[in-house]
Amino acid sequence: MNKQIQKGFTLIELMIVVAIIGILASIAIPAYQDYITKAKWAGIVLELSPVRTSISNCLQDNASMGDRCATIGAGGPANIDLADYGLAAIPQPSNTGETTPLTIAGTVNAGPATAGIVAVTVTANANISQTPSSPDTLIMTSGFDASGTRLIWTNTGSVPNKFIR
């Protein structure tokens, strides 16, 4: 009897390999896109660190008056300026093709609910946002924790927290 030697793969074996590759790709591609988006937002958050530090120092020195700690250059209420806290100008994210200019806005301290509120805002252009039709906005808002003694920064914008943690 002659033995027949297999000289290749059968069609079913090739279809199984293609199916496995398809399953792996369907998992890997969305994870990769999330990774890229997270890396871009992480870079923006890192570039905002000097802004947050200056605002935090200003709030500590000025009885948590957010409106006083939101101006650079011209001097805000009570002639307080973030330039006095090491922030000479509003820094703009280095990927200017992907984000709008950074803005800072403060809230007048009207009691514990509004103490220390300063918002730092950056909006993504279509090429960084997961949904280009409605670009995400990162709003890092300062405020105090439940004890009222520790300043914390939270994301109150439309960027999902999974991209900035």
Topology overview:
Layout: H1 11-47, H2 49-61, E1 103-106, E2 118-123, E3 137-144, E4 151-155
Antiparallel strand pairs: 1-2, 2-3, 3-4
Characterization of this structure:
The protein has 165 residues and is α+β, with helices and mostly antiparallel strands. It has one domain. Helix content is 30%, strand content 14%. The chain has 2 helices and 4 strands. The protein has a 4-stranded antiparallel β-sheet, with helices on one face. It is elongated and about 100 Å long. The relative contact order is 0.14.
Can you summarize this structure?
By secondary structure, the chain is an alpha+beta fold. The protein has helices at 11-47, 49-61; strands at 103-106, 118-123, 137-144, 151-155. The protein has one domain (11-163).
Strands of the biggest beta sheet: in what spatial order? Answer: 1-2-3-4
Strand count = 4
The dominant shape is: elongated
Q: How many structurally independent domains?
A: 1
**In angstroms, what separates the terminal alpha carbons?**
68 Å
Q: Low-confidence spans: pLDDT under 50, at least 5 residues?
A: none
Mean pLDDT over the full residue set: 79
Q: What structural class is derived from the secondary structure elements?
A: alpha+beta
Key descriptive features of the protein:
single chain; 165 residues; four-stranded antiparallel sheet; 4 strands; 14% strand; elongated
